[in-house]
Design goal:
Helix content is 31%, strand content 21%. The protein is of the alpha+beta class. The chain has two domains: 310 residues, FAD/NAD(P)-binding domain (3-Layer(bba) Sandwich), CATH 3.50.50; 201 residues, Succinate dehydrogenase/fumarate reductase flavoprotein, catalytic domain (Flavocytochrome C3, Chain A, domain 1, Alpha-Beta Complex), CATH 3.90.700. This is FAD-binding dehydrogenase.
Length: 565
């Protein structure tokens, strides 16, 4: 998938240097190619990992008032999306000036040209729109009021494809030189006076030894030489910190409870945060580092690619959620409703894992796994395989985790299920009597078509949406009804994923310094810039907004640099 074989030192200057060959970097490079500019695309990983985290993604995009929504009977609008975004973001800091402006710009993009811009590049969408981060509070609190999670037909690789193609065209035209296994260690600075700061004029770093590591695998950091590259502008698109657990803990916010001791990684180890600190050393201001987005529904990958590789369950709303001791989580902390609210609650219990209790009927209808590799039907655009999602039986990857995953317990009775749960968490005493009370009490609520149980009500309400009823939400049923069995329990772990803060940028993606002025020659995009401005999401995400943030900020940075040259 490489645009070109690395040619160390053959080309040492260009109009622009892009540091990081993930989605934001590829989009920025493609925009520069469109403008006829010469680009050095620099990345520490081998060519096999071109595209970065985006390749592994499920391919969900936040879009507003689309044909897909309207066909599913969803009434959305820019005003409703803005209401949801700002209610979730909770902007409350002086540092939120630029993030707030980026949020407005991104919402206009998502409700405007985003879909058409992608369609022009051959990106298509699955017809059923997903409903992520449902909230469950009030209209002016966190959550999506309507389904907005548009799944790209072909998942992450399909999002990358048009931009990789354009970069390859740039290589053939002599405009792009791709330098894999080039790790940037320093941004080059020149000038600087009493009235102005230094200008970023290039990068210096280490040429790493060639690696045959497959996509996502650890590629080694042995040095094979040094390099120095110069350009009129440097765009940092190097991603966040999710693969560096020490850095995640160092920036962990007290409001979410104590920093976790044990976490799974939802991103490769190469997502290490190095370039963010290097940008700060060159004068860029970092903001909102304590804002981050991790998941509570992680499971250990039975076939790992990178260290501590975890996969996130994308759950429907029906599983019974218990803490480590067997106590049910309070409303509205149901599966898929409030990611960070659930994380905060669980960490304050003093334990770092929790449990789903469900049935075979629920796992067949409601369990999806995040990741392009876990969804071969969508990724491979395989209609025959896709059709199996509406037939009996769970998707193949889900069944594989059920049979091979160390976090799954399958049993024919509740007593046997609890015993299996206890075996998988010997360090915590599960209150078996409490688990039994929770399950029996929940099941009694199914005797009528109405209920005081907020989760049962939410399940019934969800099925009013055609997409949920069709492929996402199981019909309400008793967990202990053997016709719906067997019973299943899943041990859930904390899973690192995204940085919500980063390099502060203005609306031209120019990196800003401590004085609020642009650092000459330095731009930032993607996760390194908090997906816009140093934190476009504020405290919480509405989901489907990370890939979109890379698209929007990468496009903005590429166009801004091209215009400035």
């Amino acid at each position: 998938m490489s645009p070109a074989t690395p040619v160390p030192h053959a080309v040492t200057s260009a109009d622009a240097i892009v540091v990081g060959a993930g989605l934001a970097g590829l989009v920025a490079t493609a925009e520069l190619v469109d403008a006829g500019k010469r680009v050095l695309l620099v990345d520490q990983e081998p060519a096999a990992s071109l595209g970065g985290q985006a390749w592994w993604s499920f391919g969900g995009l936040f879009l507003v008032d689309t044909p897909e929504q309207r066909r599913m009977g969803i009434k959305d609008s820019l005003e409703l999306a803005r209401q949801d975004w700002f209610a979730s973001a909770g902007f409350d800091r002086t540092e939120d000036y630029w993030p707030t402006r980026w949020a407005e710009a991104y919402l206009n993009f998502a409700a405007g040209e985003k879909r058409a811009w992608l369609k022009e590049r051959g990106v298509g969408f699955f017809p059923v729109v997903g409903w992520a981060e449902r909230g469950g509070y009030t209209a002016l609190a966190h959550g999506n009021s309507v389904p907005r999670f548009h799944i790209v037909w072909g998942t992450g690789p399909a999002i990358l494809e048009p931009f990789i193609t354009r970069v390859r065209e740039g290589v053939r035209a002599g405009l792009v030189t791709a330098l894999h296994r080039h790790r940037v260690d320093e941004l080059l600075l020149e000038g600087g006076t009493s009235t102005g700061g230094s200008t970023v004029v290039g990068v210096r770093g280490t040429v790493l030894e060639a690696s045959t590591a497959a996509r996502g695998q650890a590629s080694g950091r042995e040095a094979a030489g040094e390099f120095e590259l110069r350009a009129s502008a440097v765009i940092v698109t190097s991603g966040g910190i999710g693969g560096n657990h020490d850095l995640v803990r160092a920036q962990w916010p007290a409001r979410l409870g104590p920093a976790p001791t044990n976490m799974l990684s939802g991103v490769p180890a190469s997502v290490d945060g190095r370039m963010i600190a290097i940008s700060e050393a060159a004068g860029a201001r970092l903001i909102n580092g304590d804002r981050m987005w991790h998941y509570t529904e992680g499971i250990v990958n039975h076939d790992p690619v990178w260290p501590r590789h975890g996969i996130r369950i994308l759950p429907g709303p029906s599983s019974l959620w218990l803490d480590a001791t067997g106590t049910r989580l309070p409303a509205p902390l149901f599966p898929g409703f409030d990611t960070l609210g659930t994380m905060e609650y669980l960490l304050k219990t003093g334990y770092e894992h929790s449990w789903f209790v469900l049935t075979q009927k629920i796992i067949e209808k409601e369990f999806a796994l995040s990741g392009s590799e876990q969804n071969p039907d969508l990724t491979g655009k395989d209609l025959r395989l896709l059709a199996k999602r509406v037939t009996p039986g769970a998707p193949g990857p889900v069944e594989a985790f059920k049979s091979k995953g160390e976090d799954f317990v399958v049993a024919d009775s509740l007593r046997a299920l609890i015993a299996g749960m206890q075996q998988r968490s010997p360090e915590v005493q599960i209150n078996a009597a409490q688990v039994e009370r929770e399950v029996l009490a929940r099941d009694r609520e199914l005797d009528n078509d109405f209920s005081k149980d907020a989760q049962i009500t939410a399940i019934r309400q969800a099925r009013h949406y055609r997409g949920d009823r069709l492929i996402r939400v199981a019909s309400p049923h008793k967990l202990l009804d053997r016709a719906n069995g067997p019973l299943i329990a899943v041990k859930l772990h904390l899973l690192t994923r995204k940085s919500l803060g980063g390099i502060e940028t203005d609306l031209s993606a120019r990196a800003l310094g401590a004085d609020g002025n642009p650092v000459p020659g330095l731009y930032a995009a993607g996760e390194a810039a908090g997906f816009g401005g140093g934190g476009v999401h504020g405290y919480r995400s509405l989901e489907g907004t990370f890939l979109g943030g890379c698209l929007f900020t990468g496009r903005t940075a590429g166009r801004a640099v091209a215009a400035a040259l």
